[in-house]
Please model this.
Amino acid sequence: MNGEFLEALEQIARDRDISLETLVETVESALVTAYKKNYSAEGEIRVVIDTKRGSASPFRVTRERVVAEEVKNSQTQISLEEALKINPAAAIGEMVETPIDTMTFGRIAAQTAKQVVVQKIREAERRKIFDDYNERIGEVVTGTVQRREGRNIFISLGKLDASLPPQEQVESEPYRHNDRLKVYVLEVKETNKGPQVIVSRTHPSLIRRLFELEVPEISDGIVTIKSVAREPGARSKIAVTSRDEKVDPVGACVGHRGSRVQAVVNELYDEKIDIVRWNEDVGLFISEALSPAKAVKVTIDADGKSALVTVPDNQLSLAIGKQGQNVRLAARLTGWRIDIRSEAQVARATFMAMTDGIESLDEDEAEESLPEISSETETETTEE
Model:
């Protein structure tokens, strides 16, 4: 009997992905609830499941009662005479565990126990799922587009369907039924219907995690992603550095013939990705961040945390990007405010500053500024 009972518990534990210890505690708690409900039992009821095979009974039910001289409540008290039969060392005022005959469980009580066990197992399963995904917040998981409900998209992760809300969706991505895609675990909530997992396709850290999956040097800690800037569906920039001088961080992320970065680009439905080299020198880092444009000069204002970048005339539009996208991403990547000027604009501004500094002279000031000519000078000039 006990062996069959344990085999059933082990099978349930495997099917529901719950540890046997947790399942045993769940069943014990459920049986206590069922017994109290059906027999209006008072006091402390305990159920202990015997996990040793070969026992006659799969579980033991006991009630704790106080040894009393005069028994006023048989549910919570026991006479000394009866207590001594159970425990020869029992004394007045002590607690004694008295066994309860499980054969008294009727059909209704057994049905109640079954319902409670099923409910407790479901709760344990939900708690396990919540704990598993709560530990995976900030990670990337793979799912399948399952269905749409209004503007929400539900991604099947196997045991549950994660929610991809509108604000976490990329407008240019199709999200077709049965499409497999990677999502960033943003949040896990406990609801009446079980755990709810919120995922994202727009979070900047999705880029970071995808590169960690594709680039072994990043997962090994040799190459580090220092910062990420992203405009979902359009373009992203990542700044990388290497702890090993022999390892090129940009080359490691690009991969052989661009295979690694292309895998990330494909996952993001052809979102453009710029990989730049991080540098402790702010000026050099800002210059790198504006790639593919080449900076001629970077002037840093540390107090205002801003930078004036001079670029060749023919690269001004490239540095700024479409609708200011390139410079905007570079500013997010570096954390500095960036102002871009072409060489012609800088030269013009310099010339205007110089001319504005020169005060114009009127005629009176011009006459006063001329040297005075003495009479002696005039005489000498006439004689000559």
